């Protein structure tokens, strides 16, 4: 019976390109002429499998303890029959058992893949980014004040007009708006520095993986966008200087010396800065683009962009093949399945060297099984790769938080 179900899945995918399509237990119950022909072992296995899927979907778990799972079906079969059914499901590769835990295969694979790709990033030689943290935070402070004053002073239709006229919302991720970070240091030198934000920037610059959690208004997306605008500006200045030196034959030797010294200051080979801002939903991506003034995409756009590219003649490279930095906003809403697919594509078909996930571990997780952000945050905390932003820098956001936590 399970062989027929698996065969049906393959046919459904081949003909309709639909994955994970199964005949449910309720569907079998409606076919009484078929149900009575199914042996008790396989019938009990269907009941057990249905309970596991239902519990994972309703409770948000990616696995269940085997003792609890057999207890769930105690009203439908004996404990001995439940254990026999569980063993049958494992032997048929319908479920995966690891010690005392029972997993659905696709969720198990997704979590394993995330762990593998993050492990691969951590095992590589770290790409160090050399920045002045105070300048970055001064720029983010100025940026926040500018946005607040502008938003409060114009009408809603004017905001829409500005968004439509902003060319950076329609270009690829390489197009960073010009920002003179250094110019803000004088006016904001006395501003109080948020030590959590200092730690967050330092971790991003020194580690291949960084997880940042914090409530709305803590400046997660602001400091990240200011950091990479600043780095992109430096990269452009270095490229311009390199071009000038190469054109001057008299100082070519000095430039070679400077170039080698500059690369030695950066651990490992210098990567091109190509940052990809993403979010789980279209609305979240739009807000992220609005806040950062940089292009942002949904995670599903990344996945389907690759699928579309695979169907072409591949005369041009994949749109995101040069991405070196992935930033995922609203991480609590990202399912383990979607994140695993995006990491697979960018690790195997791009040049991903840094992963930054932003979100709030206190928020409700994705409606799909799994609690990706909280799990990764807690797992990497002991390695010094997670940081919590605790200070709210927006008055209106703090009011909302205070009211919500009363």
From TrEMBL:
It catalyses: ATP + H2O = ADP + phosphate + H(+). Its main location: nucleus. Signal peptide: none annotated. GO terms for molecular function: ATP binding; hydrolase activity; single-stranded DNA helicase activity. Keywords: ATP-binding, Chromosome, Cytoplasm, Helicase, Hydrolase, Nucleotide-binding, Nucleus, Phosphoprotein. Its EC number is 3.6.4.12. GO terms for cellular component: chromosome; cytoplasm; nucleus. GO terms for biological process: DNA damage response; DNA replication, synthesis of primer; negative regulation of double-strand break repair via homologous recombination; regulation of DNA double-strand break processing. It holds the Pfam family WHD_HELB. It is found in: Chromosome; Cytoplasm; Nucleus. It comes from the Eukaryota. 5'-3' DNA helicase involved in DNA damage response by acting as an inhibitor of DNA end resection. Recruitment to single-stranded DNA (ssDNA) following DNA damage leads to inhibit the nucleases catalyzing resection, such as EXO1, BLM and DNA2, possibly via the 5'-3' ssDNA translocase activity of HELB. As cells approach S phase, DNA end resection is promoted by the nuclear export of HELB following phosphorylation. Acts independently of TP53BP1. Unwinds duplex DNA with 5'-3' polarity. Has single-strand DNA-dependent ATPase and DNA helicase activities. Prefers ATP and dATP as substrates. Belongs to the RecD family. HELB subfamily. This is DNA helicase B. It comes from Bambusicola thoracicus.
């Amino acid at each position: 019976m399970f062989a027929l179900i698996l065969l049906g899945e393959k046919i459904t995918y081949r003909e309709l390109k639909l994955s994970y399509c199964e005949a449910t237990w309720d569907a079998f119950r409606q076919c009484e002429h078929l149900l009575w022909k199914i042996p008790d072992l396989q019938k009990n296995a269907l009941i057990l499998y249905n309970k596991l899927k239902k519990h994972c979907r309703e409770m948000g778990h990616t696995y269940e303890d085997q003792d609890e799972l057999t207890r769930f079906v105690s009203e439908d079969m004996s404990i001995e029959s439940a254990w026999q059914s569980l063993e049958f499901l494992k032997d048929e590769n319908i479920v995966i058992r690891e010690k005392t835990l029972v997993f659905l295969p696709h969720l198990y694979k997704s979590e394993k893949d995330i762990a593998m790709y993050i492990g691969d990033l951590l095992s590589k030689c770290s790409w160090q980014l050399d920045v002045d943290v105070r300048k970055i935070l001064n720029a983010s402070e100025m940026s926040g004040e500018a946005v607040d004053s502008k938003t409060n002073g114009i009408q809603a239709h004017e905001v829409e007009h500005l968004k439509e006229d902003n060319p950076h919302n329609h270009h690829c991720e390489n197009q960073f708006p010009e920002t003179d970070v250094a110019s803000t240091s004088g006016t904001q030198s006395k501003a109080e520095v948020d030590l959590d934000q200092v730690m967050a920037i330092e971790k991003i610059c020194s580690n291949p993986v960084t997880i940042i959690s914090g409530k709305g208004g803590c400046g997660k997306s602001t400091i990240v966008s200011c950091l990479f605008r600043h780095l992109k500006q430096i990269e452009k200045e270095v490229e311009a200087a390199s071009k000038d030196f190469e054109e001057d034959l008299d100082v070519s030797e000095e430039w070679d010396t400077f170039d080698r010294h500059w690369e030695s200051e950066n651990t490992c080979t210098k990567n091109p800065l190509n940052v990809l801002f993403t979010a789980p939903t279209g609305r979240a991506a739009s807000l992220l683009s609005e806040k950062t003034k940089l292009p942002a995409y949904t995670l599903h756009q990344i996945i389907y962009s690759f699928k579309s590219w695979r169907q072409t003649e591949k005369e041009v490279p994949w749109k995101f093949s040069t991405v070196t930095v992935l930033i995922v906003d609203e991480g609590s809403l990202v399912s383990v399945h979607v994140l695993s697919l995006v990491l697979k594509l960018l690790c195997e078909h791009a040049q991903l060297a840094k992963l930054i996930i932003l979100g709030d571990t206190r928020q409700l997780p994705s409606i799909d099984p799994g609690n990706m952000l909280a799990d990764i945050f807690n797992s990497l905390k002991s390695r010094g790769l997670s940081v919590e932003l605790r200070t709210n820098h927006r008055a209106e956001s703090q009011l909302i938080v205070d009211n919500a936590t009363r």
